[in-house]
Predict the structure.
Amino acid sequence: MKTIILLFCSNVFMTFAWYGHLKYGHAWPLWKAILVSWLIALLEYCLAVPANRWGFGTFTGFQLKIIQEVITVSVFIVFAMTFLKEKMAWNYAVSFALLIAAVVVAFAFKPGPGCGNGCACKLSIIMEHGDLGCGRLKSGAADRPLAIVD
């Protein structure tokens, strides 16, 4: 949970660093926008680096990145609607729903034995007994689903 909270906080800082200056248009000179953004981003890094370091092991690198992207979009939606006063369009809402679907896929299925350890696994499927495997597909008997073989 500590990882998620730190990633959330870091994304609030990063969203302001990247997009906060847009509210002021061209009233700020570019050098000022860059300097202020860098100072805000420094705080973001002070939260994101520990979040990823402490979270790695509990989560895979892929899972950390997926979590971070969903948090980023969630934070940005609130930021865009409240700070930039933009409206949510249907295509943005659908895009966000698809990102949530990606999280479900990433976390609902665990890689089988050998996956991620040098196995050239391209597809994992649930076999007859519910285990996940890794390897080449081999067609089973007519009354059985496809099986995985190494």
The CA atoms of residues 128 and 135 lie 16 Å apart. The radius of gyration is 21 Å.
